[in-house]
Design goal:
Rossmann fold, single chain
Length: about 220
């Protein structure tokens, strides 16, 4: 049975999943799950502990409450690990690469599945943003969208994000990083980044954030 107030937004890195998810959550007054932040938190923990041991990382992950709060004024999702605000730490490129590495780890993925499913409240509705939301986490969702975009456009977007937090990275490095992450995410054995059979694929390369939101809302209303 399909759930009408559950919307999944999957897709490749930098295609606009997060921006669309936030705008839809505000428009529809739904809760927001940014699964990418959970995996980035895993990457941050691995970096801090200087370990690749999944069980050690999972133990630390489960030791504190994880909360996400969307700040409309700042237009960003604040992430807290216990009482510690880790929002900026999660946007580090090294953390992002670590997150992509652990995304193919079955122990870590199974640890996070329950965290993600617990976010859905049938009385509230949920926008779930990630890479396997429609295929693994919420296959019962009525509305499933899969976003793609050119590598060049995604690199430009990532460059703007990094500049906003005072970080400077050269475009060729960003493009190379995106290519590596694409290869890892689409070819991993566990939950590869592929659209669900009943998902609608949208190329966002030439769409503004507002244009993308309106396109999705039109589809949902129709």
């Amino acid at each position: 049975m399909k759930v009408n107030n559950l919307i999944t937004i999957d897709g490749i890195s930098g295609a606009g999943k997060g921006t669309l998810a936030k705008s839809l959550a505000l428009e529809l007054n739904y809760s927001l799950l940014d699964s990418g932040n959970l995996y980035r938190l895993v990457g941050l923990i691995a970096k801090r502990l200087e370990t690749n041991n999944s069980e050690e990382i999972a133990k630390e992950l489960n030791s504190r409450k994880i909360t996400m709060e969307f700040d409309n004024l700042k237009d960003l999702t604040e992430v807290f690990f216990g009482s510690e605000r880790v929002t900026e730490d999660l946007r580090n490129e090294e953390v992002a690469m670590e997150a992509s590495n652990f995304a193919k780890d079955s122990f870590i993925r199974n640890t996070l599945i329950k965290h993600q499913r617990d976010y859905f409240d049938s009385n509230k509705g949920l926008i779930a943003d990630g890479r396997d939301m429609g295929t693994v986490i919420f296959p019962e969702a009525r509305w499933k969208f899969f976003l793609i975009a050119s590598i060049e456009e995604r690199a430009k977007r990532r460059l703007r994000q990094l500049k906003e937090v005072g970080l400077e990275v050269k475009m060729p490095i960003l493009i190379d990083n995106i290519k590596v992450r694409d290869e890892q995410d689409t070819n991993r054995d566990i939950s590869p980044t592929v659209p669900a059979e009943d998902a609608l694929t949208i190329d966002t390369s030439n769409l503004s954030a507002e244009g993308l939101k309106n396109k999705v809302l039109e589809i949902i209303k129709d």
